[in-house]
């Protein structure tokens, strides 16, 4: 007789372990591919969730095999429609040869098509493996940490209020059944003995014994300590802090599509990064040419308005918004992107003072990203250089998309944080 | 009568439930037994989801296997293809074990479920239980057990020696999987328990043996160097089971690595008949489900609507694109096998003059008996060589393309005509011969007393040389296991060395 089993309920993810082994094997490739991914358009997808495709190579499993180009081969194929014996047919051009459909039953995989699809979580893990937001610890220490409780199975020992009645009852039932079985068996044995013997004394002794067993069987305690099961809870810290990021972008005439694109990628990265660390992340977009304006994300990246460059108003606007909307409990970050062009040395100087005096004391970290090809040091760069210390204010040059990731990494590399 | 109506109502309802499966299995088993006289292992039918099917794929159908990244890779690959819609999952997967375990996809319709049960649980099952390759080379009783043992053993090794080292050994052993099969010696059948006990005993003994065998005697080095007599030759006979040779004689391999090699070797051995009987196995299973379902129709278990769905699935299984179609990817083993089996039946029942000339032995025989005989005693290459008939060649319009390395053009070697039948048959048989697919490489010599260098010889057949890159990589793996330099000579039919690969 056959045995029919419904397996659907159990045994899911049998391959998880092997999949992880596989991912581990291509880990360095995935990490290496990340800058590429960031340089590509797909960065938006990583923000919206979903999956990331990483092409991987070098996974051949070598074995001895024939070189398909060599030798003389006879290949039988179906559906002859026009050939006669002895006909000659030109071989297909390009190195393909007769590689396919030779009747080998191992499906050949072309390695360059092989992509690993990472879940968002997995991707972020590789993405941010070695990164930490500067000054995270400082703010976390200040804020009151809170915990939530999450169920985590059962324990045998806890307070009565956590008693799980159903599970305990099941345990008790099992124990009672088991014990009862023992007594029943014993009783049955005694009964058989009783039937066999005729002697009065023995019979009495047996009956006494039986009575004892019956009593025992009836007095199996309903609950014993070993039956009791308590709900178990784990304390899970929940991020309570909020963060706000100010994105300040220069949109003067000198900032072309390329520069804005670079800035956008950088902001996006920062946004993904922040959402991972904080429960609540807000973004403030400020764009400026001669005047500064708070705008929506859409407008931030797409508006074509432009003009001359005065930088200082944007910092002033940021300061104003900060004071109006974000109190002490917020972690404030700022990222400023510009090609470094300023109206005058005076403007640069004003920026420097603003950053130093009103902004830095109130925020966690500020990064200034200069998007130009490093040929010259701009006035803004020179002004900022004097106050940049990397701890809470860092300045960097970026020009090509592939430079973004290393810079980002450099800015946010995990530091050996000393909590004083 | 009401009973049959009951069945009919169940089978013709596209939504199946547990009782439907039970009833289907009952009816199908009975027909398989009475009508087709099939002897099978007991069945274990498991209903699984597509995810579980992907898991099953990755472990090539085994319910459990040792952990290895390769299985993860296969899983990722299948999953990619599946989610992109480039690949459908097969409706069933069945493994050669006793009881015979088959996985059926939950989203099959009732009709598909019946087809699958007839195909896998009767067809494949009977094939596993009766074909000589499976009976001789695998032990269906113990494979599931053995894989559980293998898993546990490798997990233990990972714990003790580190995952990386274990992976290294597995990678190397996998590279030689095709060369880890005994084709002439039959493997002994042992259960997992015996296996564990044997292991305990043998590790010690093996070690001693190895000391004896590999004791290098520095005395008289000159004599040994010059005397190239066969007395000192080791191994005495070339050994084609390279994995076995390494497991047995690698000079410096710790016992646990030998055991891992042994595990991989056992798995290779287990899958060896599968590779050699694909056409027959699928052909026979298709032949079986075709007959069983038709019989069910004849006996009134299913209605016309059911049969329409059945025929649609059946013919899509047998779809064989022509060579110039963009869907063409080789001969469909289902089609080829099914056609040959059906033709054997036809020849037994209604032979033509041509058949009388080609298959005198089949004429007038009981078709079922002949089908059984063929199913039990052949493998793909011999099956085709013996039973591919002119009619099947004509029906499929088979022809041979000759691809010679030094020519700019293909030549059409033979087509479906009088002159071509025998040639097509021979060529097709060769195509399924393992020797055509797996290069013939054997261990020919070990420098016993000096370098411990391992010499392999590749016997070139039909001028087919080795792919240099993969050969080099594979040799690296052998080098790792063997622990000493390895050399591979490719020799042509005159015995002259053409290429040498070497790893120092």
Question: Key terms for this structure?
Answer:
A: about 425 residues; two-stranded antiparallel ribbon; 13 helices; 13 strands; about 20% strand; flat; B: about 500 residues; 22 helices
Short characterization:
The complex is a heterodimer of chains A (420) and B (504). Chain A is α/β, with parallel strands linked by helices. Helices cover 40% and strands 20% of the residues of chain A.
| SSE class of chain A | alpha/beta
The biggest beta sheet of chain B reads: 4 strands, mixed
Which protein chains make the most extensive interface, counting residues with beta carbons within 8 Å of the other chain's beta carbons?
A: A-B, 67 and 107 residues
N to C succession of SSEs of chain A: EHHHEEEEHHEHHEEHEEHHEHEHEH
List the total number of helices of chain A. Answer: 13
Low-confidence stretches of chain A: 41-50, 95-112, 140-144, 416-420
> Span from first to last CA of chain B?
78 Å
The quaternary structure here is heterodimer
